[in-house]
Design a protein that fits this description.
126 residues, mainly beta, two-stranded antiparallel ribbon, 12 strands
Length: 126
Protein backbone atom coordinates (compact mmCIF):
# COMPACT_ATOMS: atom_id res chain seq x y z
CA UNK A 1 0.00 0.00 0.00
CA UNK A 2 1.34 3.42 -0.91
CA UNK A 3 -0.27 5.31 2.02
CA UNK A 4 1.40 5.31 5.43
CA UNK A 5 0.38 6.53 8.88
CA UNK A 6 1.04 10.26 9.25
CA UNK A 7 0.60 11.14 5.56
CA UNK A 8 -1.63 14.07 4.65
CA UNK A 9 -4.31 12.97 2.19
CA UNK A 10 -7.22 14.51 0.28
CA UNK A 11 -10.53 12.75 -0.34
CA UNK A 12 -10.99 12.40 -4.11
CA UNK A 13 -14.33 10.56 -4.21
CA UNK A 14 -17.34 9.85 -2.05
CA UNK A 15 -19.74 11.94 0.01
CA UNK A 16 -16.96 13.52 2.09
CA UNK A 17 -15.10 14.78 -0.96
CA UNK A 18 -15.77 18.52 -0.65
CA UNK A 19 -16.26 21.04 2.14
CA UNK A 20 -17.99 24.36 1.43
CA UNK A 21 -16.90 27.55 3.20
CA UNK A 22 -19.08 30.59 4.03
CA UNK A 23 -18.52 32.15 0.60
CA UNK A 24 -19.68 28.98 -1.17
CA UNK A 25 -16.26 27.89 -2.40
CA UNK A 26 -15.73 24.14 -2.57
CA UNK A 27 -12.41 22.68 -1.44
CA UNK A 28 -11.34 19.10 -0.99
CA UNK A 29 -11.46 17.65 2.50
CA UNK A 30 -8.00 16.81 3.79
CA UNK A 31 -6.67 15.13 6.89
CA UNK A 32 -3.85 13.17 8.45
CA UNK A 33 -3.89 9.37 8.24
CA UNK A 34 -4.35 7.96 11.74
CA UNK A 35 -4.28 4.24 10.92
CA UNK A 36 -3.82 2.02 7.87
CA UNK A 37 -5.55 -1.33 7.36
CA UNK A 38 -3.54 -2.95 4.52
CA UNK A 39 -5.48 -6.23 4.37
CA UNK A 40 -8.79 -4.39 4.07
CA UNK A 41 -7.25 -1.68 1.83
CA UNK A 42 -8.70 1.02 4.08
CA UNK A 43 -7.36 4.09 5.88
CA UNK A 44 -8.62 6.05 8.88
CA UNK A 45 -8.36 9.81 8.22
CA UNK A 46 -8.63 12.46 10.93
CA UNK A 47 -11.89 14.45 10.70
CA UNK A 48 -13.17 12.67 7.57
CA UNK A 49 -16.07 10.20 7.20
CA UNK A 50 -17.55 10.97 10.61
CA UNK A 51 -20.29 8.57 11.72
CA UNK A 52 -22.51 8.58 14.79
CA UNK A 53 -21.94 5.78 17.27
CA UNK A 54 -24.39 5.06 20.08
CA UNK A 55 -22.54 4.26 23.31
CA UNK A 56 -23.85 2.92 26.58
CA UNK A 57 -22.56 4.18 29.91
CA UNK A 58 -19.68 1.89 30.92
CA UNK A 59 -19.64 2.85 34.61
CA UNK A 60 -22.27 4.25 36.96
CA UNK A 61 -20.85 7.79 36.77
CA UNK A 62 -20.23 7.63 33.01
CA UNK A 63 -22.70 9.13 30.57
CA UNK A 64 -23.68 7.32 27.43
CA UNK A 65 -24.85 9.07 24.30
CA UNK A 66 -24.24 9.57 20.65
CA UNK A 67 -20.55 9.99 19.80
CA UNK A 68 -19.07 11.05 16.47
CA UNK A 69 -16.09 8.94 15.40
CA UNK A 70 -14.10 8.51 12.18
CA UNK A 71 -14.83 5.49 10.03
CA UNK A 72 -12.31 3.94 7.63
CA UNK A 73 -12.28 4.94 3.93
CA UNK A 74 -11.17 2.88 0.96
CA UNK A 75 -7.55 3.70 0.14
CA UNK A 76 -8.52 4.24 -3.51
CA UNK A 77 -10.77 7.16 -2.47
CA UNK A 78 -7.89 9.25 -1.09
CA UNK A 79 -4.80 10.76 -2.69
CA UNK A 80 -1.61 11.94 -1.01
CA UNK A 81 -1.04 15.70 -0.89
CA UNK A 82 2.06 16.83 -2.81
CA UNK A 83 4.45 18.56 -0.34
CA UNK A 84 5.52 21.18 -2.92
CA UNK A 85 2.25 22.10 -4.66
CA UNK A 86 -0.30 21.18 -1.98
CA UNK A 87 -2.49 19.33 -4.52
CA UNK A 88 -3.49 15.65 -4.67
CA UNK A 89 -0.96 13.56 -6.55
CA UNK A 90 -0.19 9.99 -7.49
CA UNK A 91 2.67 8.15 -5.84
CA UNK A 92 5.67 6.54 -7.50
CA UNK A 93 8.61 4.55 -6.17
CA UNK A 94 12.30 4.96 -6.88
CA UNK A 95 15.45 3.49 -5.37
CA UNK A 96 17.28 5.65 -2.84
CA UNK A 97 20.79 6.77 -3.80
CA UNK A 98 23.54 8.59 -1.91
CA UNK A 99 25.46 11.70 -3.05
CA UNK A 100 27.74 9.65 -5.31
CA UNK A 101 24.81 7.98 -7.10
CA UNK A 102 25.27 4.59 -5.44
CA UNK A 103 22.24 2.66 -4.17
CA UNK A 104 21.56 2.77 -0.43
CA UNK A 105 21.09 -0.69 1.04
CA UNK A 106 18.79 -1.45 3.96
CA UNK A 107 19.49 -3.69 6.93
CA UNK A 108 18.35 -6.72 4.90
CA UNK A 109 20.90 -5.99 2.13
CA UNK A 110 18.27 -4.92 -0.43
CA UNK A 111 18.03 -1.45 -2.01
CA UNK A 112 15.77 1.00 -0.17
CA UNK A 113 12.59 2.09 -2.02
CA UNK A 114 11.43 5.69 -1.53
CA UNK A 115 8.00 7.13 -2.38
CA UNK A 116 7.81 10.33 -4.44
CA UNK A 117 5.05 12.63 -5.70
CA UNK A 118 4.55 12.26 -9.45
CA UNK A 119 3.41 15.90 -9.97
CA UNK A 120 6.49 17.60 -8.56
CA UNK A 121 8.98 14.77 -8.07
CA UNK A 122 9.35 15.62 -4.36
CA UNK A 123 10.20 12.81 -1.98
CA UNK A 124 7.45 11.73 0.44
CA UNK A 125 9.78 9.72 2.69
CA UNK A 126 12.52 11.67 4.43
Amino acid sequence: MYIKTGDTVAVISGRDQFVTDKKGNKTRKTGRVLKVYPKLEKVLVEGVNMVKKHERPKTQNDKGGIMEVEAPLRASNVAIIDPKTGEPTRVGYRLKTDKNGRLVLGTNGKPVKVRYAKKSGASLDD
